């Protein structure tokens, strides 16, 4: 996990539908795009020949970004499963102010467990969702043998929340809806934030998105954290996706970029309150295969105090079967400023006036889950 993409449109020839804004027009274009075709020519690819440039007009926006190399020791980077910061490739966009096995396994095997909250809770009992990994692993191991088998519970998973659990109905966090945030993910996030100049970042809430190949993430703005001065960190694994980052208003055409497995996006500053979306998850060009970066296992020798743990061949077989047709994304954010508390709850009368603006959906052909992501930058 040594790549970094920091974010921030491109103009596409496509007839707008009545009342359609510039962002929705481009979202629809990429939703209908053909993989491995000229349709994706304007999408910025940060991994392309270390130049991080595509062929479209937005490629001119890509610039190399400086990192705070001295803020994270090589030892702490190794503990978190990262390369030394001096080896990271970091990019920004003008116009806008190896160790992946562990994190994939954690998203599927550990973070999906109770007491964390997931989309399946609405329709299933706690007992039924107690251990999604154990209930799903045999289904996934037999995936290649039985193509017509029903989807496992892990394949029906769409989102999981960590730490302060986001309330999709009220668009808020609250002090009384909290479970301990995973210590390994907190450490990883602190090292990445520090390398980007955000020393003292506290990982307080996480939203994990589990995408199938037919999933999308609707256009939205993340504004529910109470402190927008802190960045949002986004970690991608599995199949690639097209990410759209727009402006403060949806009539501003967004910039399209690829998010590949191992990419980290750090969204902060002006980009924190910008419209963004994922219109497309792209199948591997090799059919049902994994990106090459996922073929490298953890080193045989890890630091004694490493937060990264070895992944057994048996566990990785399950992860591999899942990721061949899926993408996993971890987003981590700080909710409160230092010494800040949650505001008191409004009265029942005021609650009825709360707007649903900011809702978005993680969609596929079988599900529609309300989601509100929280904001980003580089």
Automatic annotation (TrEMBL):
Its cofactor is Fe(2+). Fe cation binds at residues 220, 222, 276. GO terms for biological process: DNA repair; oxidative RNA demethylation; positive regulation of gene expression, epigenetic; regulation of translational initiation by tRNA modification; RNA repair. One of its GO terms (cellular component) is nucleus. The keyword Lyase applies. This is Nucleic acid dioxygenase ALKBH1. The lineage of its organism: Eukaryota, Metazoa, Chordata, Craniata, Vertebrata. Residues 202-336 form the Fe2OG dioxygenase domain. Its EC number is 1.14.11.33, 1.14.11.51, 4.2.99.18. It catalyses: an N(1)-methyladenosine in tRNA + 2-oxoglutarate + O2 = an adenosine in tRNA + formaldehyde + succinate + CO2; a methylated nucleobase within DNA + 2-oxoglutarate + O2 = a nucleobase within DNA + formaldehyde + succinate + CO2; an N(6)-methyl-2'-deoxyadenosine in DNA + 2-oxoglutarate + O2 = a 2'-deoxyadenosine in DNA + formaldehyde + succinate + CO2; an N(3)-methylcytidine in mRNA + 2-oxoglutarate + O2 = a cytidine in mRNA + formaldehyde + succinate + CO2. Binds 1 Fe(2+) ion per subunit. GO terms for molecular function: broad specificity oxidative DNA demethylase activity; class I DNA-(apurinic or apyrimidinic site) endonuclease activity; DNA N6-methyladenine demethylase activity; ferrous iron binding; oxidative RNA demethylase activity. PANTHER family: ALKYLATED DNA REPAIR PROTEIN ALKB-RELATED, NUCLEIC ACID DIOXYGENASE ALKBH1. Keywords: Dioxygenase, DNA damage, DNA repair, Iron, Lyase, Metal-binding, Multifunctional enzyme, Nucleus, Oxidoreductase, RNA repair, Transcription, Transcription regulation, Translation regulation.
